[in-house]
Design brief:
The protein is 62% helix and 6% strand. It has an 8-stranded parallel beta barrel with strand order 1-2-5-6-7-8-9-10, surrounded by 7 helices. A two-stranded antiparallel sheet has the order 3-4. The N terminus is likely disordered. α28 links the parallel β9 and β10. With 1005 residues, the chain is an alpha/beta fold. The two termini are 45 Å apart.
Amino acid sequence: MLSENESHFNAITAASEINAEYLEDYKHKVHQFSVTHDATEVEEDSNTAADNQLVTDDLPATKTFPVEFNRALERDVQLLTSILTDVIRYHPGVAGGVPGHLAEIASEILEASLKYNTDHTDESFQTLAELIREKLNEPRDYLEVARSFHEILILAEIAERQHRIRRWRGYRRGENQLSYRQTFQDAFEMLKEKGFTPEDIRNSLLKQNIELVLTAHPTQASRRTMLAKYQKIAELLEVRDKTVLTPQEMSEISFSLRREILGAWRSNTVRRIKPTPEDEARNGLAVIEQSIWHAMPGMIRNLNAALVEIGQEALPPTQSLVTFGSWIGGDRDGNPYVTAEVTQEVIKLARWRGAVLIYQEINELMMELSMGTATDEFTEYALKYDVKTLAEKGRKTNWTFSRFVNFSLRIDSSLNLYFRGNIPTDEPYRLVLAPLRDRAKVTEEYLSSVIGLTDIPTPPEGFIFEISEILDPLQECYNSLIQTGDNIIADGRLRDLIVRLGSFGLTLVKLDIRQESERHKEAIDAITTWLEMGSYSEWPEEEKQEFLLKELQNKRPLVPYHWPDVPGAENVSSNVREVMSTFRTLTIVGNDALAAYVISMAQYPSDILAVQLLQKVSRMKQPMRVAPLFETKADLERAADTIERLLSVPWYVENIKGHQEVMIGYSDSAKDAGRLTSVWQLYKSQEDLVKTCEKYGVKLTLFHGRGGSVGRGGGPQHLAILSQPSGTVQGRMRITIQGEIIDNHFGHVPTAESTLERYTTATLIASLAPPEEPKQEWRDLMQEMSDISCDEYRKVVRETPDFTPYFRAATPISEIGVMNIGSRPAKRKATGGIDTLRAIPWVFAFTQTRLQLPVWLGVDSAFSKIKEDGRMGELQEMYKQWPFFRSLVDLIQMVLAKSDARIAGYYDERLVSPEFLPVGVKLRERLTVVQELVREVAEVEQMLDNEPVVSRAIESRTPFITPIHLIQAEILKMSRTDEDGADEILVDTMVVTIQGIAAGMGNTG
């Protein structure tokens, strides 16, 4: 037998020695991987809408390119999977077992899965299912085989992500073409073709801002430990791709790849401890620190280079095109673990990590800006500091010693003082940066010391309180360098830091606070009851508004600052105490760390005014802006009316200073009324909100609460932005980035850079050249279909008695709720049915079984009715000419291509009681109908014929995902019959199958 190292050498050179039959089966699929991007990438990058798409249809068909990128992808996939197969042969996973035997079983199962993927018959499916039940006798076997397929999918995704970067770079070099064009150069060219001047483009960018808001959710499946290992693998592939290596260096990288893959295989992918909000905040900040912080300057440099190409000046470094927010540690809606103390701790954590990065950059600038030439104005600015005080009190942040210096440069030589750090006075930039570096170090050390403390000491002398304390000196350095002709130095690390400070501030992210409107009503009710004014909750809406407006304009405090911790308020509920504690905490942390206060389930003007009053009660000097979240169909329908009633109040308009933010929810509206009704109501509500705000001369920022999956408003964000209603973007928007999407789109520096570029170009195009208004007959038809879809959706989900027990039996929804996947509970309330279930696990559960119900239920009835009426041609016309409708249909088509009625039926067969089986039968019949109807609307013979890249990507994954589904169904059956319900291996296998399916499907919830 070969030694482990000899076997590894063969794996990385020939990729054929180990388990040849298994590898040959996989190589067949490698070819499909090598000619396509992966499904997730295409979802984000492909173009399916008309007018405003940056497509390549006009490219000469005869043009060839010298670089063969597909072979590089095949090489990477083959290398990674060969190493993994070798690792599996020699090393048992976390569950133990016989490694060689495991590889043989996995190979046999893969062969059967490949056969099913080819002929797709009932017979081949049953053969695969029986083989799994026959070969996998113990829970340990299920776990190890599921892990093997899971790891294959992960490694293929890593290779494909690197391939996307490779092709993106090749496109910029002119070596290849893409099916999408979303670079700055492409966007500028398209806008010029539409009649916009280069000045128009630059001026629009000067007014543009996109805020990306990171959120954590209960279905974020991967551990940070595993993500770090996968990130290392991606970095090693990138080094191989970009660097000319010696044989020894190549060997070292190969051994490093093996080390990381082995480490991943031998590590448990399952969380043993439920993550806390603080844990989730650390994970989100890690992506900022390790990736986005480094990607932002590169994106801005690309933008400025494109502006120069069209004869325009670069944007000023202080222009913040993209900023970042977060809900992690601030979203308390339905999460009892997010308390006032947690919010304060998360803000301290973000501030500390920001201070670490800022100190590192200033320290590097100290080495870089050694020039002695500066403007007279800057030299005087540099020498304004009391250098003797600095010498006595300065921090030893460098190798420092007292030095007698002669101030001979441009000043009186009689000023002989001690200074530190061996910085002579003919280095004026360092004279400015030295105390700035010291202050950054003081700030970083103080913040590090107060993490976890409840009794926080006063910040020391030198602590940085405001961004201007850093930004102003750096801007002075920048201006001096530019004016003295050292532009190339100014536009290096110094400009990059100024850009970063504009995007990330002192805290990296600004924290949103989210709470349900009912909690605020409870708090105001407790106050009015304590004041013996009656029960606020029982007052009619008009009386509530009158009271709130009166108190908002009253200069006297409504209650003592520490209320309800005062005599006579002992009976105030814990919920109210937590609300009041939160507002007092927000007063303490200050506005610089905070963004918007989001009110979920907002319905009436009093919901917004109540938060305004609670901020006043807590003595907030700079109140947070308040953003109502309209998320159900009914709330969206009255959203514009609610905002108009507020804007009709002069005090309110004056208080918001001409700017209103409104959040619209994609998840709950889809769960409430079905996807088709949701997207149409969102479209109309956006139009109405814009018109309302324009009527009162108020600028509107729409905050899009999109999820990761299509069922929750996810999909290609570039396409989503371009298909927004005309006039609703206007250069500014906020968008949530949820769960695993954070890692998929921002977890790697080059990926983050291209993602940021796509967001920026899409917002620019949507602002300057939005899509045309749809025809009235199209709007009428959409409304008709929306009504039909909503009725049918609710008839199944709400009015079918057997639906809920069927749903709980046929999906892993119950198991999801008790797993350590996220800090937030899967349900808003501990009791209740589907109405109290969050939209995220609702979509997630049906993704796991491949029924994909939330995406298409109701669409089948709507399209069927239009076809029966002989109006299919109208739908086809809308598909061709209306970007919004085409986006809707194509996303449904993509999800339907991932569905599989046989797999959904297998879950029913193994898990559902006979009395509920008819529900599943009917739903699968409807799935078949909607697939046919969507193909007819898109005028394709097979699903995704118009998107062959997406189709091949999905097909290439199917052989690896299908066995994981069947394993999951078996594990669900075992665990539900396990009397103790505590078999650790069963629980671990369940989590691994969830992770594997999520990896293969491209999203979780």
